[in-house]
Every structure is written in C-alpha cells, then in structure tokens.
C-alpha cells in the first residue's frame, strides 16, 4: 500500500489522528485534487467525517480551485448528495462554490434535491443565487 493509499484509507475511516500523522510526514498528501475521484476532501465530505474534513481544509486542501466538476463531483456536491449539513456548512465557510455545475448542469443544490434533502437544497439554492448576484 502506498502512502497515498494509506492516507485515503485513513480519510475514509474518519481517522483524524492517522490523517494528522500522515500529513505531518508529508503535507503534500492534502494537496487539492479537485475533479479527481480520489480527492481526499470530497471523500471526507461524502462520508461526513467532519474532524478529517476540517483538518484537510485548515491544512490548505481547499486553497486551489475545486477542479472541474464535469470530471468528478466537487466536495460540496458529495456532501449535499449525502445530506451532511455540517459538512456543507464547513465547505461553504472555506469558500466552496455552490454555483458550480457538473457535466449535466447540476449544482450541489440539485444533488441535495435528487437525494431527498430538501432543506439542504433550499440553503444551497439561496447560496448559489447569492454567489451569482455577487459576480
């Protein structure tokens, strides 16, 4: 198992202590990989591992653009689809863009709606509209 595989396994388990230890040895493990299926931020968001998600975000994992949402869902789309309201809030706090669209034109709010999370979808539609008005 490579160090990257070990890191992703720790993220997937929600093992914040292991993630912190691996990051202290190699901070590049948290490098943004938005638009890739093995993005650690998207994985933590999808699974609702808030401690790991916060650790990654505070370590700069969200510092670069989220990648091309046409290639793979963004972390925000993943959290919205899974109904993880706290993960969505954390991602928005760290600058995730609720207006990004996937290759089918769906936003994070659409992902939430499709998964039956109407309250979360409502919040995301409002945030996306606010984002659109700012730009």
From TrEMBL:
Superkingdom to which the source organism belongs: Bacteria
Q: Which Pfam families match?
A: Ank_2
Keywords, alphabetical: ANK repeat, Repeat
**Keyword field contains Lipoprotein:** no
The keyword Metal-binding appears for this protein: no
ANK repeat residue intervals: 36-68, 71-103
Q: Which SUPFAM superfamilies match?
A: Ankyrin repeat
Q: Which InterPro entries match?
A: Ank_Repeat/CDKN_Inhibitor, Ankyrin_rpt, Ankyrin_rpt-contain_sf
By what name is this protein known?
Answer: Ankyrin repeat-containing protein
Which species is listed as the source?
Answer: Belnapia rosea
Kindly list the organism's lineage.
Bacteria, Pseudomonadati, Pseudomonadota, Alphaproteobacteria, Acetobacterales
